[in-house]
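Q: what does this look like with nicotinamide-adenine-dinucleotide bound?
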Amino acid sequence: MDKVRIAVLGCGRIGQMHAKNINLHEKTQLSCVYDINSEFANKVATDFNVPAVNNDQEIFSNPDIDAILISSATNTHIEFIEKSVAAKKPVLCEKPIDLDIKLVNECADRLKGNTVPIQLGFNRRFDPGHQSAKQSLIDGEIGDLHQCIITSRDPGLPSWEYLQGSGGQFRDMTIHDFDLARFMLGEEPIKVFAISNALINPKIKTELNDSDTLMIIMETKSGKQCHINNSRSASYGYDQRVELFGSEGMTISENRKPHEVRKFNADYVDKQAPLLNFFIERYQEAYMHEITAFAEVVINKTNPSVDFEDGRKALVLAETAYKSIQSGKMESIDN
Ligand SMILES: NC(=O)c1ccc[n+]([C@@H]2O[C@H](COP(=O)([O-])OP(=O)(O)OC[C@H]3O[C@@H](n4cnc5c(N)ncnc54)[C@H](O)[C@@H]3O)[C@@H](O)[C@H]2O)c1
């Protein structure tokens, strides 16, 4: 296989970026695109000179398509994963699998025995900084891991419309951090305690029963500790840091800036450029490496390093965090 021929389902915000990356990548080729809104599909099709098909079945039944990337609305993911598996086409599906853990568990049951690769779109695992932090742990540079601290703050509140359909901050936003925590800890959290509030816009709590600011602590069976903090609005930009603290040292995966210029004068010292704004810029390399990993899965017929079960387990952690919010207590994981 020269290049993996990939069809993109869903041409919204993240689908457009994936289409661009697939088109640029040396190991992949954009085959065609589909979106229920033909205007979005036609735009991407025109940009990359590929066909926009009229329905998803044209993709699943096409023998010239090797693999599928699902970047449509969350409530379509399960249907498209199952159609990809039925068509024996490896699939890279955006997070989350679904917002409803019951539907995800039912899907997992139906997928038992499936051998078609399903990669989950937890792009942060592929970030060079986060990967290097994990590698320093594997290489023994910081000894035994004791604590993992994840800070993830968005640069500003999304639209009210987005918040209404997001499924809640833990399932929509923290889901990435739950996955990153599992990745860094190298073992499953067994206890979760969470607090949350709407400190940026109180209506998020009173009208949507949701939060914009939260903190979580988790513990693994061997006693490793993890702390996640999220805000939907950091005035200084997209704040993405991971700190690993161990018996022999500490590793920090830092924020990214567009360049490293530092300015000094009588009014300030060490003035630096603002942080790269938001996920498409900050995680640009991670999204590209995610495509590399997927292409290698398809070409080498291997299992993805991050798969359906990782998506399900991240959602289980989100559900446990909601349980903790309700009870006000530390909750045990119910897998
Ligand atoms: N990994 C990440 O960093 C990341 C970032 C953003 C979004 N996401 C996830 O990606 C998915 C898409 O998010 P987005 O921000 O691009 O949303 P979006 O609303 O911009 O795009 C979703 C697209 O899906 C299309 N769509 C809806 N139903 C469809 C159907 N049945 N068939 C085909 N297309 C359909 C919509 O018309 C729209 O164009 C969500 O699941 C979201 O959680 C992941």
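The chain is about 35% helix and 25% strand. The pocket of nicotinamide-adenine-dinucleotide is lined by residues 9-15, 34-37, 40, 71-74, 76, 94-95, 121, 123, 279 (CB under 6 Å).
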